[in-house]
Amino acid sequence: MSFPKPTGEYAVGTFTYTIRDAREEVLPAGGMRSVAARVYYPVLKESVEGLPKLVALSPNMIQGLKASFHIAPNFSKNPDDKFSECYPDAPRIPGQKFPLIMFNHGYNSYREGNSFLCIELASHGYVVISVAHSREALCTEFDDGSFLYSDKKNSQLYEPMIPGLFAMLKLTKMKGTNEELAKKFDENQKKYCSYMMSRLPEWVKDNEAALDYAKKNLSDLIDFSKGVGASGHSAGGNTAYALCARNPDFTCGINIDGGLFGNYENDIQTKPFMQISCQDNERVVTRVYLRHTKPVYKVLFNGMKHIGFADSKHQIPMKSVVGKLDPDVMHQNLCKCHLEFFDAYLKGLKAAPELTNNEAIAVSVFEPDI
C-alpha cells in the first residue's frame, strides 16, 4: 500500500529539538522531565532536489511498536515506504514565516505517529511542532542519541481495569443529551480514571515548554502574530482542548477522537474548536459542545476506529483495529478538516471552514451557548 504524498505547494523540511526541562518528573521513574519535539516546515520544492528523505521509523521506534502492540509495519514489499515525505534540515525559505500548529500524539503512540497529517499541513504553509510525551510514548528519542520506551510501571487507563472499562463501554452506547452524557463521563472518570486525569497538566506543560523554545529560537521561521493552533489525537486531542481553554497563546484547536480526561468543570472554551470523532466515541466527548463562546464543529467519521486516525491506518491496515473506511479517504478528509479550520481561524483566509457531508464525514456546528 502506498503512503499519502503531500499535496501543497511546498516540500517539507524537518528537524528536532530537545528541552531538558527543570520540572521534576512526577511519574514513578523520577528525574527531570525531558521534552522532545519534531518540527515540520515548508520549503521550496526545488531546494530539496537530491536531498535524502527522513527514515520514517527508526529501529528504536520499530522496537517500541513491537513491545507495545506486538506488530510493526513491514516495508519489505515497498522499500520506499520506509521514508517520510520530508527532508532533514532542508534549507528554509529566506525571509518567510508561517503560522504554527502544535500537535500531540495519543497515549502510547509516538511523536511521528501522525506524520502524514503533519507533513500535509506543512506542505500547505504551516509550521507543525509535534511534541513527544516521554515515558508515555511507545518510544521517545532525544537529540543526544538517548531514548526512552513506554514505562510499564505507569498506572493503567482504568483503575480497577475491568469495572472501569465496562463503565466506559456502556457510556458509548448510552442515549441522552450532551449535558447528560458529559455528566456521566465525568462521574466515570472520577471513579476509574484518576491517573489519566492527573496526566493532562503535565502534557500541557510539555507543550508550553516546547512553545517557549520556539518563541526564543524559531522566530525567524514562525509567524506568531495570529497566535498558535493546536491539534492532537486521543490524549493529544484532549491536550489541544485544554491548551485552547486555558492558554492565551492558543487561538483555535482540533481534538481527534480524544476523551476529555481532566477536571474541566470550571472551564469555558473561548476559542473556535473542532471535535473529530469516530462513531464509537461520539458519546464520550460531548463536553466539547458545552460552555463555549465561539463556534464548535462536530465532524463524525463513518467506518472508523480510534487508532485509525493515526498513520497506522496506512501502515497496519487491519480493519478490525483501524476501521473499514479506506485509508486514503480517511486521510483526505482528515487533512481537509484541518486545512479548512486552520485556514479560517489561524491564517484568517476565510470566515469559516467550508465543509460538507459526504460518504466519510457528517458535519454539524454548535453556535456559542455562552
Structural account:
- By secondary structure, this protein is an alpha/beta fold.
- Helices cover 30% and strands 20% of the residues.
- The protein contains nine helices and twelve strands.
- The strands form two sheets. A ten-stranded mixed beta sheet has the order 3-1-2-5-4-8-9-10-11-12, sandwiched between helices. Strands 6-7 form a two-stranded antiparallel sheet.
- The termini are far apart.
- The model has no long low-confidence stretch (mean pLDDT 95).
Q: In brief, what are we looking at here?
A:
With 370 residues, the protein is an alpha/beta fold. It is 30% helix and 20% strand.
How many strands in all? 12
Order of helices and strands: EEHEEHEEEHHHEHEEEHHHE
Beta-strand fraction estimate: 15-25%
Radius of gyration equals 19 Å
Low-confidence stretches: none
On the 0 to 100 scale, the average pLDDT is 95
Q: How many H/I helical runs?
A: 9
Identify the strand order in the major beta sheet.
3-1-2-5-4-8-9-10-11-12
Task: Tag the structure with descriptive keywords.
alpha/beta, 10-stranded mixed β-sheet, two-stranded antiparallel ribbon, 30% helix, 20% strand
